[in-house]
Design goal:
The complex is a heterodimer. Chain A is mainly beta. Chain A contains no helices and twelve strands. In chain A, strands 2, 5, 6, 10, 11 and 12 form a six-stranded mixed β-sheet that branches. In chain A, a hairpin with a 2-residue loop joins strand 7 and strand 8. Chain A is globular, with a radius of gyration of 14 Å. Chain A starts with a strand and ends with a strand. In chain A, 35% of the residues are buried. Chain B is mainly β. Helices cover 0% and strands 61% of the residues of chain B. In chain B, strands 2, 5, 6, 7, 10, 11 and 12 form a seven-stranded mixed β-sheet that branches. A three-stranded antiparallel β-sheet of chain B has the order 3-9-8, with no helix packed on it. Chain B starts with a strand and ends with a strand. The mean pLDDT of chain B is 92. Classes of the chains: A mainly beta, B mainly beta. At the A-B interface, strand 5, strand 6, strand 10 and strand 11 of A face strand 5, strand 6, strand 10 and strand 11 of B.
Amino acid sequence: AQKITQTQPGMFVQEKEAVTLDCTYDTSDPSYGLFWYKQPSSGEMIFLIYQGSYDQQNATEGRYSLNFQKARKSANLVISASQLGDSAMYFCAMREQGYSSASKIIFGSGTRLSIRP
Amino acid sequence: DVKVTQSSRYLVKRTGEKVFLECVQDMDHENMFWYRQDPGLGLRLIYFSYDVKMKEKGDIPEGYSVSREKKERFSLILESASTNQTSMYLCASSWPTISGEKLFFGSGTQLSVL
């Protein structure tokens, strides 16, 4: 069954350090996509990065990169040079095909990241 | 910019009431989703829709139904609200592109069932 697992409920990181947020997934669909979203205390959901299952290279968006290890079914988010504004809840998500032409997108339980000054 | 609008930011209802949560998107997206967000559980998919009148159950559809009569509007219905349906409800829409798919979220509705 389709599943997303985030094993770190909370993390504390010193400002300017790099941080890795873990995400593992389970799917039987050969075609799928992986996302990361950020949710600050305001509650809005901010798209960070996307990786397709057939993409040969790891996705990068500015300070964000997705460490995609297909054989291990992991899609960890790496934030380089963390900033105070990175303090937020982070969600990993996965898209796979539903029974129809729809894409089913499910989320993990999230990791709360706190950056220390 | 894509706009996904949820009709209410806060809603208080009584047990047993029928509750409608409305969501409208302005970008002609085919796919729309309803999630509920609870602390420690993340976002859980209730229902999703890929076209007018077409819907699929998500992971937690029990106690909910949906309606999509027009492409831009996706409604979540609680037939008989219960206290365990107190939660933050998030609507989203998406459009698949060659570079991937991106979900656009509304600002959420915090529903309290008393």
